[in-house]
Amino acid sequence: MGEVVSSDPQDYVWGFSGTPAPMRQLYLPSGVETYPYAWVDASQARALSLLSPVLAQCEEAHVMVTVKRDLFGTGRLVQVEDLSLGPTGCQPISDNAAENTVIFYAGLHECGSVLQVRGEDFLVYSISLHYKPTPSSHSVIVRTSPVDVPIECHYPRRNNVSSNAVKPTWIPFESTISAEEKLRFSLHLMNEGWSSERASNGYQLGEVMYIQAQVIAENHTPLRLFVDRCVATLSPEADSNPSYPIINYKGCLVDGRFDSNSTFLLPRIRDDVLQFTVDVFRFSKDPRDLIYITCHLKVTAATQAPDAENKACSFHPARNSWVPVEGTTDICSCCETKNCVRTAGQGSSHWDQGGRRRGRDVAAKLGM
């Protein structure tokens, strides 16, 4: 018979006792998360106490196993030194004499645990609690049997349960794709007060476009959004001709360099939002009045300092210089040299909408 022995919404313990039984589904009230959860199989040790003597709690990167020393419910306490975790024999971290409990605390990859993929949805870390009674110094007999209690921690493969980012020295391809799919980029034409999306995409020459780029990241470490480049074309294809670069060289708002007040707004309202204005224009040698603006958006960790490859720079006519939204002014110097490549030894990483995949093609119809 199975019983839920913990009701914490983050950690669930599933205990089995009595006769052997197959693994069962843990059913919880509607709206309660069912993972991560622990499965403790005591069915093979028929002599164990019926009061769930082994409890497991699965955390983000560790498992905590609490063992009652009255392992068999007879009142005879087992010796702490006879208990170990995993094939490597990890020892407990504490012994609570008042409650007669022993606690093991180990990393999911420690103590010889085994990682398996169950179907398409779960990662399962398996390990066993071992009880191996040893004869006392004055006897050659033991009064209890050895016991192995399998323990499993189940985690969803596609959910990030971390409160902070893992920073590996390399990023597996599947992890990159998974992270990329969780980032939702958007590009909107906004009203003059930036309070809502603009109802119309029609403009007259002399007006100003208010453009807002944003990223929504679920279960992700804080991110800072950048607009790598924006190009205006007369057809939806970003590589078509004629074309006019609005933002270029990895974050330089070059349109503001040429008889325009186009600029990034500073300071930002949030790291995951970037706002900029563009003076309305049209192509001089083409009568069509429908213009497409395609932007390439990317993000970096909010804790990463802006650099030559991750920046938002506007040209300031009065100063005759480039000004960054954040970071030191030297990161914008490449907007003039047009060579915005990260200097040697300077680390950088970002997620973006790679290749031709774009957050949105914004069509702005320009009236005459």
TrEMBL record:
GO terms for biological process: binding of sperm to zona pellucida; egg coat formation; positive regulation of acrosome reaction. One of its GO terms (molecular function) is acrosin binding. Keywords: Cell membrane, Cleavage on pair of basic residues, Disulfide bond, Extracellular matrix, Glycoprotein, Membrane, Secreted, Signal, Transmembrane, Transmembrane helix. It is a single-pass type I membrane protein. GO terms for cellular component: egg coat; plasma membrane. Residues 57-320 form the ZP domain. Proteolytically cleaved before the transmembrane segment to yield the secreted ectodomain incorporated in the zona pellucida. Coiled coil: none annotated. It is found in: Secreted, Extracellular space, Extracellular matrix; Zona pellucida; Cell membrane. Belongs to the ZP domain family. ZPC subfamily. Component of the zona pellucida, an extracellular matrix surrounding oocytes which mediates sperm binding, induction of the acrosome reaction and prevents post-fertilization polyspermy. The zona pellucida is composed of 3 to 4 glycoproteins, ZP1, ZP2, ZP3, and ZP4. ZP3 is essential for sperm binding and zona matrix formation. The ZP domain is involved in the polymerization of the ZP proteins to form the zona pellucida. This is Zona pellucida sperm-binding protein 3. It comes from Laticauda laticaudata.
